[in-house]
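Re-run with default settings, no changes from the original entry. Doing this only to confirm the output is reproducible before filing.
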Amino acid sequence: MQAGSNSSAACQGSSCSQSKTAVHGLTGACGTVAGAVCAGDTAAGAVCAGHDPLIALDDVTLRYGDDVTALSHVNLAVASGERICVLGANGSGKSTLASVIAGLLAPDEGTVSLVGRTVCRDGQPDFEAYGHARRKIGLVFQNPDDQIVTSIVEEDVAFGPENLCLPPDEIGRRVERELARVAMGDYARSDPSRLSGGQKQRVAIAGALAMEPEVLVLDEPGALLDVRGRRGIMRVMAGLRAQGTTIIHITHFMEEALAADRVLVMDHGRIMFDGGPPEVFSHCDELLALGLELPFTARLSAELRVHGFDVPWTCDDEELREALAPQCACTRAGHASAAEADGLPQERVPSDQTGRTTTTGGAPQGNPACTVERVSYSYNDDGGRRALEDISFGVSRGSSVAIVGQTGSGKSTLVRLLCALEVPDAGRIVVDGIDTARKRDRRLLHGRIGYVMQHPERQLFAETVLEDVAYGPRNMGLSPDEVRARCARALELVGLTGREDASPFTLSGGQQRLCAIAGVLAMEPKVLVLDEPMAGLDPHGRAQLEQILSDVLAAGTTSIRVTHSMDDAAKADQVIVLAQARLLMRGTPEEVYAPTHEAELHRAGLGLPAATRWALALGLDAAPLTMSALVRELSRTRAVAARLGSGLSDAAEGGDEHGA
């Protein structure tokens, strides 16, 4: 393990526009990754004796303009076939390193060697060497829109192999194979612009894999993917690793880092930690200070230790389960009967044996904020494929709703219809008492619905933060005093007070998203609709945004959120599950995430919250939705097990005495 020192210069964003030496005329995003070691070696930046590294960065520094240092004196050595996971807060330098490793950016200082070629020496790029190296390196950007270049899916996947001058038959074989690998074969002739964000990401991944690279760099490949999609990408990476492909994987999902050979943690353009996953995650306090979090299992083991459980701190699921088993050993029936006898409350959930939940738990009461009645919608240029079919549900005023579903299930289409950006082919939608069917009525919804799209930071356009946030309220015809007051409240809510005169394009990536959200909140909508607002945010950013949304909800605003996180969805008042353009189930989180629905959710490409999965694995009767509820249930189970064990012991002693 190596701990680095803090750099005084911080990367300020993911959309820096300052000039930078770019290879092949391409510019990268502001972010980073840093020094790796050969598997089994303990010295950062070292490789096994007698073996040259496949990738090497020697004292690399890269700046954006004069005031933003994205990489600071980075030393990195990656051996052939290594699988490295890179963690770090937004703006820590991860994406910039990805661009350097992929040959898209040349540093200002230092030397870079890629796949056996020195492509930059002492800050001087060798463009011919870069050209050769790039043929052996694949890159998947954080946002798939940054790398999709054609209007037909299969042509986009073929773009890389065609530039390698491969024979047409070989190109066709690779395209078919990779589209099948990412489950996009049925969309080969589709227009990528009409696909969902997750589907676009699959196309981008297929395009990178079709080049059969020696090195594959993935920058947040699962940010827009559903549970099944992320698992699929992890399986693909495992398969490629087994075949000898070197993988550099940037992610904000801590659990994904557990599958890596090594984990690097970045901060301010430097490597702070470098080692095996358990070793890196053992630095709990330091990681939290860097805006990160621990994997669920590590957090659970730490919490259990606080509550007196005799378990080791671990990141390993099996190790923790084995340690818990003897402390919570009792039959499910025995647990239930003993608990009831002791008067302990039971956390049971209603279930529908047909698998379809349409309970009243999440149904609107009185005058609803939104009503969706028998809604269907198709995109005309997609061969008549249904995006939504016969969808019905209601949303109570002041409540929170989570919309979940596999990539392409119709979630983004549904929220666009709710925001009156599209009109249903059949059925009706009523928002705040206004039917969206007629254009003149839809105008009445301006300001009543706030819509935060995927990557809202791309909506920024004004010269200052204040001007950007004020744009919506001004267009509502409000007085200057009211506009100023609303902007002040919104900026305070998102933590950007004091940055009013700054350019939004000089903010960090997380701050840009908060600025865009502030512009929506300043309109003070009655209904706030968010499409994957957490995608691409680090743990600290997610927690900050979660608190903002909680405050908005407490103020009486109705919240409708699309999410791929089952843990986030479990916090909502109502969960709506879409599958293949249809409503699969809806209800309270307790109803939707009942254990009886596990198989059906799995078939829909989803799953259960982490706490619920653990409860099932441990054989608990209850189905807790959060870690705190899981710890409470385990504590109750331990107490019951102790009582049962004591009773059996007393009975045995009594029997012996009687027999004597």
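Residues 1-49, 331-357, 656-660 have pLDDT under 50 and may be disordered. The domain at 370-594 is CATH 3.40.50.300 (Rossmann fold).
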